[in-house]
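INFO  loader      accepted 1 record
INFO  loader      residues=414
INFO  predictor   begin
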Amino acid sequence: MDNAQSLGLPDGWISQEEQSAFQNEFTIPASIQNTLLPSPIISLKALASFALPVMVEKSTNRKYGTDYFTANPSISITPPVLMRLQHLPMPEQSTIKELVEIGHQAWLNGAKSVRYAHLSNDSNTTDFPLWTITFWNRVLDAKEVSSKWIDSVDWVMAQLHQKKSEERQMLAEQAMLYIAALPWAVNKPSGLSDSEPIHSLWRYLGPNWLSGSNQNDLLGLLRYQLAGQSNMTKIYRVEGTDTPQKILSVYRNRHKICYTEERSVEWLRTLANDLIKNEATLITMQNLTNITGSHHWVPLALSVDKHSLLFGDSLGNEIPKELRMAYTWWMAQHDVSRNFESDILMAVSSMSIGQQIDGHACGILAINALHHLIEPNRTLLNSGSIGDVVKERLALFNMVASNIIRRVSKQVKY
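INFO  predictor   done
INFO  writer      dumping tokens
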């Protein structure tokens, strides 16, 4: 977010000239912005090492937002003042958010500077520029990201220095090279599932649950891998996580819409016709959150010619009945099966998948299961052990990072 966009800028009831003046007061000067805040193009490793001011702990002696503003002119920004801004503790988060909300009104009331009212030293009598509030607010955003990458770098370094597996060491060394090269705030390039910032890759590196964006990137790279193999492209259709969610949604709303005519699901009908015509297999990943209430990824393969589902669950659970009914209903709309109304559901077979022993490796094991299903001689089935999951996490991060670095290598600042 830009410097003054979120600082309560009045819209419509003050003049354009006043709005411009307000923005000037609350905008960090470009000449010092990259000194105070991490540039969007520094690497993930540089971000994790970037010195940001700490935040005071919550106190019963909390100052009100109005205590921070003064009508005094602000001091000039000299190197010593800049250093104080870099190192003085900020107010607690709720105070910063309050200052953001009341900033425009305080400025209209004549405020020209702010003080560190939460501190007891001479800083609470020093008049800093109004853009100090913008700085504090931007630090909150940067800290939210940098804290994750501090943990991620520590996790990778632990894998680099462990002595149990040379393979893990090599994968960790490669990961560190990517972390030192990828720009943290540049968006992911085309070729992946979306344009989220590169820093969203932190979930791979540590005991974290993979997001839908992460899974869609992995499914997209699997699709790309198969694209160069004509025999594979005839057999498999790799779809992102939105497809199974849409199938479930349409099934749940089947009495409210006419599936065969609804324009919003035309793409779903096209997919089904393609699967049927070419006797292809749908490959995807299902999030069970809105089915079972559990944040859990499972791999799924629909074999149209065999009228069956391949379902894997790293926790060893059976396929939820509603999911099975949804796919049976979907295929029945295309005359693959007329058994839905008689409750004879689509056959389900077990997909080989590693056994999960924690609360967050499901996505890692799910994508591995799909790779193993398609190319068992190329991809070994992950056992689900701690060491094997760590290796898989590193390998997947490296695969995604390699895809990104080829497209953004000219943008990074080391």
